[in-house]
Structures are given as structure tokens and as C-alpha cells.
Write a structure and sequence with these properties.
With 465 residues, the chain is an alpha/beta fold. The protein has helices spanning 17-29, 40-46, 65-73, 90-98, 111-134, 150-162, 179-188, 210-215, 232-235, 251-263, 289-294, 300-306, 322-338, 347-355, 361-375, 383-400, 418-432, 437-444, 448-455; strands at residues 10-13, 34-37, 53-57, 80-85, 103-106, 141-142, 145-146, 169-172, 197-201, 240-244, 265-266, 275-276, 280-285, 309-312, 342-345, 379-381. A hairpin with an 8-residue loop joins strand 11 and strand 12 (275-276). This is Fis family sigma54 specific transcriptional regulator /two component Fis family sigma54 specific transcriptional regulator.
């Protein structure tokens, strides 16, 4: 079970109000959240929030401090405990350590000594929980990901092993497999979790704006730059920058990204000076980047820069019964949103879920179940109902695809406006490439900007999602 993100970092148990206020102010100034208790009863109540560290005064008005120490260290998961007392005897220190205390401080405690000891205690707590996660056996999910298939267990273990590192990560996998959720989990379980995670879809940025989107620009840098803009790198300062679909980057921007990964410095468009960045880089792609390198479409040196640690997200068809678990999860979620109640899935429906190849992976499953929750009658979902929604998606794409076969005799009734035909072709291409604008544009023989431009006209396709 993951820790409540609203839980305090530190529980401070101190019966002297002036000292409790002083310690809380010092620890809060260091960037940690602190809950304060003046006695054992209040401390027991606040322990339910699972703080990562406890600063414990052994001299309490309503209980023996050593007994409370043993209670705390016997909890699972147990926070790291620092004992603070005026009784600075060797015997007291030895007893406290024997009962599980991490460190022992004697009043009056210097502010630097207190913050350093607490910082070390929090680091210890994080490492202990990480080891517990790694040795916890089978998991039903991690972060926002759901599934217990062996392929996903390998993903969870890898995430937890690399989350604490500062090295770049490359997440690979087909469209719809959950690469962004993987990136979010890496950030959440890492040392930068308190700072922002900033995601950039490299395939959705018009080429002319890509550099500004990443690095920002100054006022007057180009036509339309009426004010300074903070780029994604600056927004992610101290945290994680997630570059989704990095394989779609144009060669010019690949060069600039390479320079950034080498020096961790960048220059805003139109700016003369460079800025030092402190971010962790996580990238994702549904392409085989090694093949892109061989074909000359992706820089080899950049590939080795971003591919330091690698995670491959498995396709849904390789995840055993996860497809049924995910379907139930989505059905409950979307039924709640629609104010409906479904009794679940029949065995026939579950068998269909397992046998279907799911080319669009989890995203396709989610969309099918969403449509089903909106349009199907409440009750139990049987195989025939599920099949209707499965085939509806494929039929829509096929119907939207333009045909090259001419009718035997021209029929004016079959003539459609050119804009409708263009929209149909664009919709079919976007569906075929999982919403990837760059790849759809390449297949259609047009530029990505053309798709965005046609989106803005009346009746144009929507590629905003």
C-alpha cells in the first residue's frame, strides 16, 4: 500500500510547548511537513497518518517514553525514531537504541544537529520502504498502473530500483501501454517527488514552436513573442522532465537536446545567456529508436544519452488476466461517472477480452469500456454486447478511410465536399497511428502543421487530446 501523500513527514512528540514550537519551526523551514503531539495519547492518534520519522521526547506526562518507543518501532511500516531527552546517560541511550531508536539527541539540541539527524532519518526510512517494496512479492499495481501479470511485476521492480537514481530513463512500448503512467511512478517514488513533473508531447508540438516549448523564449525573440515565456525545462526545475514520443523530434531540435543532456545548460530563444538546469530526464517512445538510428532519423549520440536506464512496457495482449481486471476497473469508474450500475461481465465477455488482440492496448480498452458505460443498458455485460462495442471502433475507422476504387458510373449523390474527405482521411490516419500527429502526417504525405491548421476550420478534426 502506498503512503498517503497528505501524511506529515515528521511526527514531533514534545511536552514543552516552547520547544515543540521551536523544533517544528526549524523542521518546517527545512522543507518538511510536521505534526506535533504533546503526549502519548495524541502521538498514537497521529501515528495513523504514517509519518516517515518521529522525533520523540522520552519524558512525557501521560506515558513512559520507552514504552511508546517500543510501540512505534513495532509498527509496520515503522517510522525511523529519533529520541530527544535531558537524561543523557549512557544507559538511557543504550536502552533507546536497543528498543529500535535510530539516533539519540540530548537537550539542548543545536538546530543544525537536529535538521541533519532528521534528514538522515528520512533517507533511512525511504530506503527501508524501497527495500520492502522490492521484496514485497506480487503487486496488484503501482502508482496509477493496475495489473499483476509477470510482465508488469518486472516493470514495477524496475521502477522501484531506478526511481532513486538521477540517470536518464527511456520508456519504450506500443501506443497505449501506459508509458506516461510509468514516468509518473518513477517521479513519485524518486527523490524529486516534491518538485514538479512536467510532460511534453514531442509529437504534438509544431516544429516552429518546439524550441520555445522546451527552453522558453524572451520577449521579442520572434514575431508574436510579446512576453517572456518559461519553457518546460525551467518549469521542471528540481523535478522531472518527461519527453513523450521523443522519436518524433526533428533533427535540429535533437541537436539542441543533445547539447542540453551533455551540459544540463540551456538558452532561451532570443537570450544571450545560458541557464543551469537541475532536472531528471525521462523519455518515452513507441518507436524502435535503434532502428531509427540505423535509418538516420535519430541521432546515435542522443540515443545513448537518453537510453541509460530502460523500461519496456508490455502490450496488453501479453498481460494475461490483467485485461479483465482493467476492464472491471474501467467499468466501475465510468459507470459511476454516468450514474449507472453494472453487475459485471459474463464469462463469455471475459473470454472475449482475453482473446482480442488489443492493438491499441490499455488506451483502446479504456475507450471501449467508456463507450460501453455510456451507451449500454445497465446490468451484466455479455459477450454479444461487448463484441458490438469492440467491432464498432474498427468499423468507424474503416468507414472513415478513403477509397481509391471509382464507381462504374459517376453518381452525383456520391459526391462529398472535399473538406469532408480530408477530415475522413485525417481521422483514419490518426486512428491508425494511435493519435500520433507526426506519424499520421507522414503517412498522408503532409506536414503536421497542416493537420493542426485543418483542425481549426469549421468541421475540422479535433487532435487536441
Amino acid at each position: 500500500m502506498s503512503r498517503d501523500q497528505s501524511a506529515p513527514d515528521i511526527l514531533l512528540v514534545e511536552d514543552e510547548p516552547s520547544l515543540a514550537h521551536l523544533y517544528a519551526r526549524l523542521l518546517g523551514a527545512a522543507g518538511w511537513t510536521v505534526a506535533t503531539a504533546t503526549g502519548a495519547a495524541e502521538a498514537r492518534r497521529l501515528l495513523a497518518g504514517e509519518p516517515r520519522a518521529v522525533v520523540l521526547d522520552l519524558n512525557l506526562p501521560d506515558a513512559d517514553g520507552m514504552e511508546l518507543l517500543q510501540e512505534i518501532t513495532g509498527r509496520r511500516p515503522a517510522p525511523t525514531v529519533i529520541v530527544v531527552t535531558v537524561r543523557g546517560s549512557i544507559r538511557t541511550a543504550v536502552d533507546a537504541m536497543r528498543f529500535g531508536a535510530y539516533d539519540f539527541l540530548v537537550k539542548p539540541v543545536a538546530s543544525e544537529r537536529l535538521t541533519t539527524t532528521v534528514r538522515n532519518a528520512l533517507d533511512r526510512s525511504r530506503l527501508i520502504r524501497l527495500v520492502d517494496d522490492l521484496t514485497d512479492g506480487t503487486r496488484d499495481g503501482l502508482g496509477g498502473m493496475i495489473g499483476s501479470a509477470p510482465a508488469m511485476q518486472a516493470v514495477y521492480r524496475m521502477i522501484l530500483m531506478i526511481a532513486q537514481s538521477a540517470a536518464p530513463v527511456l520508456i519504450t512500448g506500443e501506443s497505449g501501454t501506459g508509458k506516461e503512467l510509468c514516468a509518473e511512478a518513477i517521479h513519485r517514488f524518486g527523490r524529486r517527488s516534491a518538485a514538479p513533473l512536467v510532460a511534453v508531447n514531442c509529437g504534438a508540438i509544431p516544429q516552429a514552436l518546439a524550441e520555445s516549448e522546451l527552453f522558453g523564449h524572451v520577449r521579442g525573440a520572434f514575431t508574436g513573442a510579446t512576453a517572456d515565456r518559461v519553457g518546460a525545462v525551467a518549469q521542471a526545475e528540481g523535478g522531472t522532465l518527461f519527453l513523450d514520443e521523443i522519436g518524433e523530434l526533428e533533427p535540429d531540435l535533437q541537436v539542441k537536446l543533445l547539447r542540453f543532456t551533455q551540459t544540463m545548460t540551456y538558452r532561451r530563444v532570443g537570450d544571450d545567456g545560458s541557464t543551469q538546469a537541475d532536472i531528471r530526464l525521462v523519455c518515452a517512445t513507441n518507436r524502435r529508436l535503434a532502428g531509427e538510428v540505423a535509418a538516420g532519423r535519430f541521432r546515435e549520440d542522443l540515443f545513448y544519452r537518453v537510453n541509460v536506464l530502460a523500461i519496456d512496457m508490455p502490450p496488453l495482449r501479453d498481460r494475461d488476466d490483467d485485461v479483465v481486471r482493467l476492464a472491471r476497473h474501467f467499468l466501475d469508474r465510468f459507470a459511476g461517472e454516468e450514474g449507472k450500475r453494472f453487475e459485471g461481465l459474463t464469462a463469455e465477455a471475459e473470454g472475449l477480452l482475453r482473446s482480442y488482440p488489443w492493438p491499441g492496448n490499455v488506451r483502446q480498452l479504456q475507450n471501449v469500456i467508456r463507450a460501453l458505460a455510456v451507451l449500454a443498458r445497465p446490468g451484466t455485460i455479455d459477450g454479444a454486447t461487448l463484441a458490438t462495442f469492440l467491432h464498432a471502433g474498427g468499423a468507424d475507422v474503416a468507414a472513415a478511410a478513403p477509397t481509391t476504387a471509382a464507381p462504374a458510373q459517376p453518381d452525383p449523390r456520391l459526391v462529398r465536399p472535399l473538406a469532408e474527405l480530408e477530415n475522413a482521411a485525417i481521422e483514419a490516419a490518426l486512428a491508425a497511428f494511435g493519435g500520433n500527429v507526426t506519424r499520421a502526417a507522414r503517412a498522408l504525405g503532409i506536414g503536421p502543421a497542416t493537420i493542426y491548421r485543418k483542425r481549426g476550420r469549421p468541421g475540422g478534426v479535433d487532435v487536441s487530446e
